[in-house]
């Protein structure tokens, strides 16, 4: 029986130091029926020279004259896909030999799924497995079904590793390309769009190595943890959250989020719109402020009398209650907030240290030896004063 073709898409920008290992990890897969699409995003290093050293007919290299960033070149690569399945890998990550084979087998044996991911190992610049808890735990996820996936996405954010994905190409054709407006969270936006239509499965095996760079390493724009990257991701995540319920089937919305409803029996379109507003006011982290998008949703509802009455009669939520929400902090910045807390901690430590020094000085000044030697210190002070004349 002829094996289905898998199109593997890699995009690259200035990863001459890791791309060879990444390419080798694809070519060395146990599953051999591949179309290997590599789009170089205008690299200024020797990345293309490294790619061209591979004499494998499965590789298709597409060079861009200038850097246009990840979403643009990913969409270009998607237009070249010919296979029945699509997989993605970054030019700094690695696949383990059995990765594709195991995922193909799973999707064939479980036709109710058209897309699957896997658990991952976190690796450093030397390709050593480090499995840093702060990062690795992010990908330790299992979805019980479509609703569980959507719930986790809403409250936790992205918990899937893009280089571990394998999906039927028909999904790509239905969902379309990546949103050019997103950089840090382009993949999360894509998974949310997929999850609204299909269940996602995460195989509980570590089938890939996801590389993480030092926060000051400029070789990676998306894999590092710099302040700019973290801030951009948070901003993009909040925007994705603002559109989270768009195009979501109401039956799926109720099934997924009913446990969080203000009124569990909400069923009508108007009632569900109110429930969405309350949900959108839920911070993605208990320590964060109320998301502005939730306030915006209520502002839209208050434009129509039917919602004003419904919110008061069914949800016991009046315009005065809304004013209490708008009196709270909304436009916080996670990075600045963390920095403020750090400065407060440092300030408290300095105050404590200063207090200890003052106490120590006071103890010296009140000590017997300090009092006995006071005349001598005064004499020495006068002598020094005369020596200056």
Task: Offer a concise description of the structure.
This protein is an alpha/beta fold. Helix content is 47%, strand content 13%.
Overall pLDDT level: 89
What's the shape?
A: flat
Kindly report how far apart the N and C termini lie. Answer: 107 Å
Q: What value does the Rg take, in angstroms? A: 29 Å
Strand order of the largest sheet: 3-2-1-4-7-6-8-5
Name the beta content range.
5-15%
Instruction: Tell me roughly what share of residues is in helical segments.
Output: 40-55%
Query: What's the number of extended β-strand segments?
Result: 8
Listing every helix as H and every strand as E from the N terminus to the C terminus, the arrangement reads EHEHEHEEHEHHEHHEHHHHHHHHH
CATH class of the largest domain: Alpha Beta
Describe this structure in words.
The chain is an alpha/beta fold and 389 residues long. It has 3 domains: 6-240, Spore Coat Polysaccharide Biosynthesis Protein SpsA, Chain A (Alpha-Beta Complex); 250-326, no CATH class; 340-374. Helices cover 47% and strands 13% of the residues. It has 17 helices and 8 strands. The protein has helices at 19-27, 47-52, 70-78, 99-109, 133-136, 146-156, 169-175, 186-195, 227-242, 250-257, 269-280, 292-301, 305-313, 319-326, 334-365, 368-372, 374-387; strands spanning 6-12, 34-40, 59-63, 85-90, 94-95, 115-123, 166-168, 201-211. Helix 2 (47-52) links the parallel strand 2 (34-40) and strand 3. It is flat and about 105 Å long. The N and C termini lie far apart (107 Å).
């Amino acid at each position: 029986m002829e094996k289905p073709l898998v199109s593997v898409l890699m995009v690259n920008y200035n990863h001459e130091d890791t791309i060879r290992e990444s390419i080798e990890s694809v070519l060395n897969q146990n599953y051999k029926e591949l179309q290997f699409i590599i789009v170089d995003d205008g690299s200024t290093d020797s990345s293309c020279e490294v790619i061209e050293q591979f004499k494998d007919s499965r590789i298709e290299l597409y060079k861009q004259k200038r850097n246009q960033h990840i979403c643009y070149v990913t969409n270009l690569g998607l237009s070249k896909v010919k296979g029945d399945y699509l997989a993605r890998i970054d030019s700094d990550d690695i696949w383990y030999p059995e990765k594709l084979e195991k995922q193909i087998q799973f999707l064939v044996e479980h036709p109710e799924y058209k897309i699957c991911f896997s658990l991952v190992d976190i690796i450093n610049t030397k390709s050593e497995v480090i499995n840093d808890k702060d990062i690795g735990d992010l990908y330790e996820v299992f979805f019980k079904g479509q609703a569980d996936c959507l719930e986790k996405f809403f409250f936790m954010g992205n918990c899937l590793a893009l280089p571990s994905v394998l999906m039927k190409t028909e999904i790509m054709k239905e969902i379309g390309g990546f949103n050019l407006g997103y950089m840090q969270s382009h993949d999360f936006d894509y998974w949310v769009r997929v999850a609204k239509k299909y269940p996602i499965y995460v195989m509980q095996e570590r089938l890939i190595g996801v590389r993480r760079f030092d926060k000051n390493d400029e070789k990676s724009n998306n894999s590092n943890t710099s302040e700019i990257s973290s801030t951009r991701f948070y901003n993009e995540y909040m925007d994705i959250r603002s559109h989270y319920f768009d195009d979501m089937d109401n039956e799926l919305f109720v099934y997924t989020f009913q446990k969080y409803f203000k009124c569990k029996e909400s069923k009508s379109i108007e009632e569900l719109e109110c429930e969405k507003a309350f949900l959108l006011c839920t911070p993605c982290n208990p320590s964060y402020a109320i998301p502005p998008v939730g306030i915006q949703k209520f502002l839209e509802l208050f434009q129509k009398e039917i919602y004003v009455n419904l919110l008061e009669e069914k949800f016991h939520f009046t315009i005065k209650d809304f004013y209490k929400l708008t009196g709270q902090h909304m436009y916080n910045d996670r990075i600045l907030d963390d920095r403020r807390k750090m400065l407060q901690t440092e300030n408290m430590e300095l105050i404590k240290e200063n207090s200890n020094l003052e106490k120590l000085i006071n103890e010296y000044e009140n000590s017997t030896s300090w009092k006995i030697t006071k005349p001598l210190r005064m004499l020495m002070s006068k002598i020094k004063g005369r020596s200056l004349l």
